[in-house]
Specification:
The protein has no helices and 44 strands. The chain is an all-beta fold.
Length: about 625
């Protein structure tokens, strides 16, 4: 199919000019932020060579199905009403057979705001959607901040929302007209939320997942449910957690059988609300659920960028990610976007590229598009609303260029992604060479160190697998030591033979540090004679910075790890001997790279987590350890 998009360039982004196209007014009593909000970010869809949308039309005093006409760049009213409640907002899903919508208001005490399910069939000859009989179906008694929709592999439709500080779900049964009573997710972490927290579902890999915010825990939680299983059967993971790392902004997409990941969630943190916020802290973050159950994390924007309301789109043909954001936070302004390769995720620093702006003083906010993934035949369309002038605006991007094939099975492990460090180049050093070999996946879910070569602790120390403390899954390794003589705690894994090329991936959380002048090692590497080759550690009572000790030298990295906060580390030793290079990533971002002779010895034989230094206090959890080439 040829591209739907015209080939003309975007509007001039010169100072004061409109960027994108102004559509029509949505001004009416009770209509506010009609493209919002947050996970309810799918007001559009693609079908039969056209983009379609749910937009409020004042002349009809209702939300209507509109078709976008590319030649004129205008929305065409199809005469099909969605909802005549001005307070309602819809989340829309087109599955190729039916068009599903969940529509509701925000007042939980008002029956007028209750969520309803609508379903439409498509008449291709008339290019029009036809309401199906028996709909709408009432799903709730009142409203909620957001209602969002997904469909599992068995055709069951799901809707999630939060109420009474809990996460609720409901789904269709034998038919789309028959639904369960909404039930709270049977997970402790899905209760006792703040009144501001929200949830959203996603279908992926034969499962339904639900992500929700918990701003008390500083966490974005994710629960998965196998399609067709009992409603009580859910598995919890934590996508990100730490002080101020959660906010009620999230937008999810998924891929099927793709090496890049299964679930992609772009979220906003609350680090901009901290007293004296650090401008370099992450504000917009991409979370990627890998097939091994680990969540990778990538910074999209920082506190200094002052952006909000992130929207994620995936171009599967060209293997590109697009994130659209509003700036400034939080009442609106202009819409910006950033893009990254899907296979080497790295979003540029700064504001990004301006995508929509309404003159000098517009208040554009809440960019919206589709739940569908895109390609060159669909192009990309984003709609937003100016909350000052009560006008819709849109803009488009052609998705052009050569098609990019996904990495094939058996390729080397993914290379280092992210921007090069100042003064260093990672070109040519990012890939782990040779056939992929995985030596260890930690085995902590067994409740012990059974897969590790050894685990030891001294007097008053702890080296144990502890239930209920896992970063993802139930268990994590717990290491703690005191200042007592002979106190230490560590676990080691020895490779079958010395290896010149090794990658170690792990999650760490430092519960407590020791006195100034000492440090806490997160990872140590040894050669076949037991000599220490390198250590990655955090200096106590300093600036939370990670350091590297390798050979005779010690150097700071650009990464910092806060206390009581999970952090993801990837450490690569590439090449071995005098030709070796070490590359370190923290939460997906390169923070260190150095070449020989920093690493002495010919190769790595043993990997250690915890500390074998005696009398050096610390308390640390480690999870999701993988050692591979």
């Amino acid at each position: 199919m040829p591209s739907l998009l015209p080939s003309n360039a975007p509007a001039d982004a010169g100072a004061g000019n409109d960027v994108g196209a102004v559509d029509f007014s949505f001004q009416a009593n009770g209509v506010k932020a009609p493209t919002g909000r947050k996970p309810e970010a799918a007001k559009l869809w693609v079908n039969d060579g056209s983009w379609w949308g749910v937009l409020f039309v004042p002349a009809r005093d209702a939300y209507m199905i509109e078709r976008f006409d590319w030649p004129t760049g205008a929305w065409v009213d199809t005469g099909v009403m969605v909802d005549d409640r001005n307070v309602a907002r819809a989340d829309v899903l087109w599955d190729g057979k039916y068009l599903y919508m969940v529509s509701g208001g925000t007042d939980p005490a008002a029956t007028k705001h209750r969520a309803v399910l609508l379903r439409y069939s498509y008449d291709g000859a008339a290019k029009r959607y036809v309401p199906d009989g028996g709909f709408p179906v009432a799903l709730t008694r009142g409203g909620a901040e957001t209602f969002t929709i997904a469909e599992d592999s068995g055709g069951r439709v799901w809707v999630t929302f939060t109420s009474d500080r809990r996460v609720y779900a409901t789904h269709s049964l034998a038919s789309d007209r028959d639904w369960t009573v909404p039930f709270p997710l049977p997970i402790p972490e899905a209760q006792n939320l703040t009144v501001d927290d929200i949830a959203t579902p996603i279908a992926y890999d034969g499962k339904i997942g639900v992500m929700w915010s918990d701003q008390t825990d500083g966490a974005m939680y994710f629960a998965s449910h196998a399609d067709g299983s009992d409603d009580a059967a859910w598995t919890l993971s934590t996508a990100i957690q730490g002080p101020s790392l959660a906010d009620d902004h999230m937008n999810l997409h998924s891929l099927s059988g793709d090496s890049a990941g299964e679930v992609f969630a772009v979220v906003k943190t609350s680090l901009n609300d901290d007293p004296n916020p650090d401008p370099e802290k992450p504000l917009i973050v991409l979370l990627v659920l890998k097939s091994n159950g680990v969540w990778d994390k990538y910074v999209v924007g920082r506190v200094k960028d002052n952006q909000t309301r992130p929207l994620l789109m995936i171009d599967t043909e060209h293997r590109r990610l697009y994130v659209f954001m509003t700036a400034p936070c939080c009442s609106g302004g202009s819409i910006y976007y950033k893009s990254s390769s899907l296979d080497q995720i790295d979003f540029p620093d700064g504001d990004g590229t301006i995508f929509m702006r309404h003159g000098r003083s517009g208040l554009l906010n809440n960019p919206t598009s589709t739940h569908q993934n895109l390609d060159g035949s669909t192009g990309l369309l984003v709609l937003a609303a100016d909350d000052k002038s009560n006008l819709y605006m849109h803009n488009t991007l052609p998705l052009t260029g050569p098609s990019v094939a996904p990495p094939t099975a058996g390729q080397p492990a993914p290379g280092i992604s992210g921007s090069p460090l100042p003064g260093a180049s990672i070109s040519g050093q990012g890939s782990v060479t040779g056939p992929a070999v995985e030596w260890l996946v930690d085995g902590f879910e067994s409740g012990r160190f059974g897969l590790w070569t050894t685990a030891r602790s001294g007097p008053g120390s702890v080296a144990a697998v502890q239930p209920g403390m896992g970063r993802s899954g139930a268990n994590a390794a717990h290491f703690s030591a005191t200042a007592a003589v002979g106190s230490y705690a560590f676990a080691r894994y020895s490779l079958p033979s010395s290896q010149p090329t090794v990658r170690v991936s792990l999650e760490v959380k430092l519960e407590a540090e020791g006195p100034a002048g000492a440090n806490v090692p997160f990872l140590r590497l040894f050669n076949d004679k037991g000599s220490r080759l390198a250590a990655i550690y955090r200096q106590n009572v300093a600036d939370e910075r990670l350091w590297v000790s390798a050979g005779a030298g010690r150097q700071p990295t650009s990464g910092r790890v806060d206390l009581k906060t999970w952090a993801h580390l990837d450490v690569d030793v590439l090449g071995g001997g005098d030709a070796s290079t070490m590359v370190i990533r923290l939460d997906g971002k390169p923070i260190y790279q150095a070449a020989a002779p920093l690493i002495k010895g010919s190769a790595v034989r043993t990997i250690q987590i915890g500390s074998d230094s005696k009398g050096q206090p610390f308390d640390m959890y480690v999870d999701d350890v993988r050692i591979y080439r």
